[in-house]
Amino acid sequence: MRVAEAVGRVLHGHGVRHVFGVVGSGNFHVTNALVAAGARFVGAAHEGGAASMADGYARTCGRVAVLSVHQGPGVTNALTGLTEAAKSRTPMVVLAPEATAPLSNFFIDLPALAAAVGADFHRVRATHAAEDAGAAYRAAARGATVVLGLPLQVQNAATEPWSGPVPVVAPTPSAVPQVEPLLAALQAARRPVFIAGRGARGARAPLTRLADACGALLAVSAAAKGLFAGNQWNLDVAGGFATPLAAELIGAADLVIAWGSTLNMWTTRHGELIPPGAVVVQVDSDPAAFGVNRPVDLTVAGDVTAVAEAVLGRLDADTTGTTDAGWRTPALAQRIRDHGRWRTVPYRDESDAATIDPRTLSAALDDLLPPDRTVVVDSGNFMGYPSMWLDVPDVAGFCFTQAFQSVGLGLASALGAAVARPDRLTVAAVGDGGFVMSATELVTAVRLALPLLVVIYDDAAYGAEVHHFGPDGHPLDTVTFPETDLAAIARGYGCDGLTVRTVDDLGPVRRWLAGPRTRPLVIDAKVCVAGGSWWLQEAFRGH
Predict the structure, then answer these.
(1) 413 Cβ partners below 8 Å, 6+ apart?
(2) Can you tell me the distance from the alpha carbon of 539 to that of 543, in angstroms, rounded to the nearest whole number?
(3) What angle do CA 533, 539, 541 make, to 5 degrees?
(4) What are 33-60's pLDDT values in tens digits?
(5) Across 124-233, where does the E strand assignment appear?
(6) CA distances from 348 to 117, 237, 317, 328 (A)
(7) Model pTM score
(8) pLDDT tens digits for 323-358?
(9) 163 by DSSP, 3-state: which?
(10) SS3 of 218, please?
């Protein structure tokens, strides 16, 4: 058996069922080995798109994704999407063919490249190919993005045959979390708030049980939106996207517990959201995350689920199950129902004859679209509108490509999400700048024939820069553009295309939703420069 074949078989044996990429000479054999073993290859138009597809896939279904690229430029083309994945701790293995001779035109210092973006690096050896591939997969399954170097001269070498089964590796026993100080803080608190982040995405049940036991309100970072969907004490997203009510209540907390969240500047509005007198606790499986963004009063090292369950097990019997403790009153529950969503916050509709207010657009779409949906949001000025006005059914229904803050990743990420959950309608929310950067992947969208709705918030500009620099009188010629018929561009790729300037223009969306939805629908929504981009003031304070 050759090394490339062994790598493909081992990855499939560990559970890989999809591989995303662009095939060239260096990754031809390893990709075909995965396909021969039973994996599905999803070919992208560009390696950058393939990386984002793998990222969106893994975030949506929770399985390890595999990205396969050519040596040299194939790797560098994928670098932005790879960086987003690494910063988001996406479980991914990147099959990276490696020209190890420094004089080769294809040579890249792959270990240095991986380290530069925060990814792990593994390399396959001829004598240990199966072992090395398995180790890379297991590292990814623990929450790492792994660049797996496949030296060109090694891939064709003979190695020991491998046909499975996958060796069972017993998990390392975890120490029992030390929760006594956290328990004491909860028992002393009268107005506790939980803020759950990316590291708590699988911990809804224990966190809601613990919140019920101690009377805490529930909030999330943007990366964990949907985690507490449907819970009557859910304040939704904290930070720059927070509703006025959420900001008021978090600002009145006497205890804030960050579960798998580093409380970055976006989640805390540069530290101003959390009141100075509140006790702040950080729970994380990675001690290196403690205090990286702000001082905390107490840290608890451990898996979020394990810590929450340990605290539940220690709570006094007379407090367990008390659902109306502290500030959980019927009156507050009613306030959350009435004012806990941006849809319920009044605003002045700034639509005109040629453009639609993005808030009005988003609310109308939320009413039209089926509840069972996956919303994928690109980066840009527009991003708060779909993030806050489009509801999602659960935490898997929201994919937020903001860790690296790169414009242009959302469309391809949505394709990966659609592959992961073809049973749901996938909605890609993008700006006109990000759409133009990534429109080539509409070829892939048409080829896949998956249910995909692309909503372009088209303000004919790089709107964030317009908002940031315009009020100071700076020239904006470099960031504003003539109106472009983006719906026509989408039709040229084989999609259905629709231009929207009013709510009435959304009529064809209803017909498309009725089926069969075998062609993607791209909505070019000509949006006005509304006054609702409140999050931009927060965003640019970090630049």
Answers:
(1) 52, 53, 55, 56, 59, 376, 378, 399, 401, 428
(2) 7
(3) 125
(4) 999 999 999 999 999 999 999 999 999 9
(5) 145-151, 192-196, 217-220
(6) 43, 23, 50, 32
(7) 0.93
(8) 445 799 999 999 999 999 999 999 999 999 999 999
(9) coil
(10) strand
